Amino acid sequence: MDAQCCYEELFKGQAYSPLELPKEQRPRERLAVLGPQSLSDRELLAILLGAGIRGKGVYQLAEELLGRIDAAKGLPTIEDLSEIQGLGFSKACLVLAMLEFGRRHWGPVGSRIRQPEDAYKLLRHYADRKQEHFICISLNGAHEVLASRIITIGLVNRTLIHPREVFSDPLMDRACAVLVAHNHPSGQVIPSPEDEEITRRLKATADLVGITLLDHIVFSEEGYYSFSQEQKNLFMN
Fold it and tell me: Domain named MPN: which ranges (predicted)?
């Protein structure tokens, strides 16, 4: 049985702890051998949580926590996390402390995007999400990251985007440029006609408000598609 099958059993709530996985598939052991960058967000949270509760395995709990973190504008609150059955006040505080510590010391703010690969490295951890996440990165004149935000979380294979939602925060950031991106849960990175239309609309709005649309990246765990590289005509004024 491979790791994904084992994870599915944990998602069903039939397993309490990653210790029920074969040793080589346990997230702590995988982290020790492969490094934390090789684990999914879900696995990292499972390590932090340690165990689930009766009827809800640690991976199911991690999945719910991940959904709350993705949906929050900025850091989630204690109240947000306390709504997750099985998390508890102490674990909620631990999670928030970890998120804030990571934000302060190793957040994406200040990272420079010189090419699409740089953006993909910042965004790849969203690739395993089951729904499309549309993300906007605000950049200064040197293309350094000012902020990164999830704009919408849509149904699988469909994300509805309004330019106002994309550009309102970058304008507040005094951004000179933005880069937008979204994951394809299917794993395929070939853009749809809808993706192309969204890119055209965002480019038109960017020109109107005086912000450069640097790129629109479609990505998955397998790789990415850069509109600025593959369809340069869309970015010509």
Answer: 112-233
Task: Report the predicted TM-score, pTM, of the whole model to 2 decimal places.
Answer: 0.72
pLDDT in tens, 102-151: 877 677 777 889 999 999 999 988 998 888 999 999 999 999 999 999 99
Q: What average pLDDT does this structure show over 58-80?
A: 87
List Cβ neighbours of 66 (8 Å cut-off, separation of 6 or more).
Answer: 41, 42, 45
Measured CA to CA, the distance from residue 156 to residue 131 in angstroms comes to: 5
Beta-carbon contacts of 208 under 8 Å, excluding residues fewer than 6 positions away, are none
Query: In the chain, how long is the greatest CA-to-CA distance?
Result: 59
Report all structural domains of the chain as residue ranges with CATH numbers, in order of start. Answer: 3-106 (no CATH), 116-235 (3.40.140.10)
13, 55 contact by CB (below 8 A): yes
Judge whether residue 1 has pLDDT over 60: no
DSSP conformation letters of 129-186: -SS-EEEEEEE-TT-BEEEEEEEEE-STT-----HHHHHHHHHHTT-SEEEEEEE-TT
Rounded to 10 degrees, the C-alpha dihedral 129/131/137/143 comes to 60
